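As promised in the previous annual report, we have extended the structural survey to additional targets. Below is the entry for Putative capsid protein (F protein).
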Amino acid sequence: MKEYYHFFFVSYRSLWQWFDQFIVGTPNPVSALNGIGVLNNSKPDYSFVPKSVPSFDVDSVINAASKFSDDSQGFSYFDGAMKLLNLLGYGVSSNGGRYPYSSLSGGYSKKTSIGIDLIAPFKPVKPKASPLVSSASPFRLLAYQKIFNDFYRVQDWSTADVRSFNIDDYASDSNLKIEGDVAAKFCQMRYRPYSKDWITSMKPTPSYDKGIFNLPDYVGHGNGAVSRSSNGVSGASTFINGVSVLSVNDLRAAFALDKMLEATRRANGLDYSSQIEAHFGFRVPESRAGDARFIGGFDNPVVISEVVNQSEFDRGADESPCLGDLGGKGVGSLNSSSIDFDVKEHGIIMCIYSVVPQTEYNGTYFDPFNRKLRREDFFQPEFADLGYQPVVTSDLISTYLDNPVPDGPEKQKRLAAGYPLSSIEANNRLLGWQVRYNEYKTSRDLVFGEFESGLSLSYWCSPRYDFGFDGKAGDKKLVNSPWSPAHFYVNPSILNTIFLVSAVKADHFLVNSFFDVKAVRPMSVSGLAGL
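The corresponding structure token record, generated without further manual editing, is:
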């Protein structure tokens, strides 16, 4: 495992386009859209200057978040939202509670009837009614979501959730109060993606198949057409007197279009900068993009050391520890260097801490090399640049259909949902696409024998088993694959086999961080009156 500290700068302007006019108090619009939200006599008011930034009521967010079920990894949406509100300073404990007013004067101890000092019961409690009338700025929550969208999101599989990090539509003095159900979307807990390997680097389609781009009809002899399927360009053809004819120009058009869409898919992301680099070969300056800026970071391995049980106990039915049993303790310690950053505009500097396990997989899978039976299956230089090859279920894990369904309505229902009807079909479901012959270039970490999931030594390692091909949450409907976008992000439960306490009951890691922050600001030293 490795821990990461990543620091980012997010400008207020990228979260709310009206901030520049608000902070200087002068109307200086740069877009016709700046007046759309403010109508004066049925005409846009381009000179509008907002009186305040948009805000939300903290308690309305708590109530709205409690109505959400689970997040993308199956954990309680409410619990994750309360953790974010707690960490970002919104006056809420990690369980959604606050400290009762009557307990504030209790001190550190109290006297009981028999004269014994006890620690006072000073802890946050969930109030029965909304006790606060508090308007809060959403910028910290929006910055957290913006960082995830720009830096951590797997863009090929996960679409941008604009509603979670942008409030440009709150654009008039009568429309600056953010509703609770909208603000609750700012509080979604996000998860870091797995490191890239043979599985997590696959693409949903070999060619880009979404967006505003529509393939034009290429006319060769007055009756030609280039078409594409859900996986990209499918072919080109012309029809003369009812006979299908493929011209040279049709081939050129199909090749050029397929090459362009493959470059779109092969790019590092779907954002403007990544696409320009993929198609034109140069990077766009950071000043051009409105993305969160990465300003530095540190990483450090979490070292696991053994702990030997030296107490003598008889192992009973409860599997209590015996003399000589081995346990483990993980410790990470880091003294980092400095990060210097010159801030040029109003914004937020935020540190994102994350722990990423070394990705491992069970050895019970069908190695692609064991599937090579024909000459063209082996590496051939002439076939090296033909594009992508499919990744199927057995490339990830070998399975069998343990609950076959007889003929009837249930079978038709499963068939319509894409559920496999045989073990052969279950092992050959299309998950995604990988570049051709990539198995010659990279692999993945594997565990074998009793170290595999569910066996006697599985608590010594953490192979992935969070596949859930059917019914997995996380925008599965957006991709034509049983492999969900949620599978590309680290699920904390992957470490449940190692830790005594599950990720649902408590956090796996206890983190103590000290940041020596020195900021040079154009401010008075004392802040006292100077007249």
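Residues 248-266 form the longest helix (19 residues). The CA atoms of residues 2 and 469 lie 28 Å apart. These points will be discussed at the next consortium meeting with the crystallography subgroup.
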